[in-house]
Write a structure and sequence with these properties.
Layout: H1 3-33, H2 40-44, E1 53-58, H3 68-83, E2 87-92, H4 99-110, E3 115-118, H5 124-133, E4 138-142, E5 151-156, H6 158-172, E6 177-182, H7 187-201, E7 208-213, H8 220-232, E8 237-241, H9 246-254, E9 257-262, E10 273-279, H10 282-294, E11 301-304, E12 311-314, H11 322-337, E13 347-348, E14 354-356, H12 364-368
Parallel strand pairs: 1-2, 1-3, 3-4, 4-5, 5-11, 6-7, 6-8, 8-9, 9-10
Antiparallel strand pairs: 10-12, 13-14
Amino acid sequence: MSKLSKRVLLQASGWAALAAAAALAGCGKKEEAAPVAESPASAASEPAKPEPLKVAFAYVGPVGDAGWTFAHDSARKAVEAEFGDRIVTTFVENVPESADAERVMRDLVGQGNKLVFGTTFGYMEPMLKVAADSKDVRFEHATGYKTADNMRTYDSRTYEGAYMAGVIAGSMTKSNTLGVVASIPIPEVIRNINAFTLGAQSVNAKVKTKVVWVNKWFDPPKEGEGAQSLISGGADVLFQNTDSSAVLQKAEEKGKFAFGWDSDMSKFGPNAHLASSVINWAPYYSKAIKDALDGTWQTGGVWWGVKEGAIDLVSISDKVPAEVKDRVAKIKAGLTDGSFVIWKGPIVGQDGKDVLAKDAVADDKFLSGINFYVKGVEGKLPSGN
């Protein structure tokens, strides 16, 4: 072989070796730089976002009643805004206090709701039945007194608002006759009638209170008829424990005074309106939902008032004298810090006998069972009370 052929062969061999080395170096570099793919197991370890808590509300009236149900639904909207996508709420309005309430609640459970609010006294027994069959659901019953392991009660001290309204009524009446349009004769309503009267008597010992019972929570025509009957009987300041604005509207029509109840009703009778006793359910609904989300929910009962921000007297009319407004403000401050007590003896019943002895203070058991009128309330309680 010639020298030239050997040189060409050696060059070719050298180039081949260099190419092989470069290829190996390139492969090694590629393996080092390759990103590590996320394994399916690693992806699955990411915590899944929890499903929102489904919360349902059963309402006895329409959400547009301007009173009781309107107040509950306003609070529902408030907690929706507070908790955002952590909850989903739904409601059913106009649910009667009958066996139909049980059907509605079972349907709400069937839809996957894990927290159910029943917002009227008459839902107590139906809710107990559904709670017994739905142990994984938490039930909340407004104004009731029976509980279960997964059902508790909540209420507002509406009598505090009634008392403050009474102070204004006793100051504003000319006839010394007050009128109350009342719904259902249960302790809650009787307590409010009495508290309204006690508030009025605290500033005007001459007042008397007449009562008309309509036996419904929401029936605007009947409420209006009841108001007219009281006006015809001499009442010039009207109060109510019903759910619509009909009483205030009738007072506006007849040139009398009246109060809003459960919500601010001032727009329905701007000349007649003296003030509105309102309920704010949002603080309690916030607590109940937080308890359910945190796993701290437990049975029992809650009764909140002015102190907890659940009750207030708002939109007091300019017609009310400044000194009366000041008196109401002091009462409100006293209810907030505990220095003022509404139900403190001596308090006398219709029969002239003490229902609370001098300096005695009523406890919640006493207040929950009130089935009598105080002195100054005319007429008899409906049978069974």
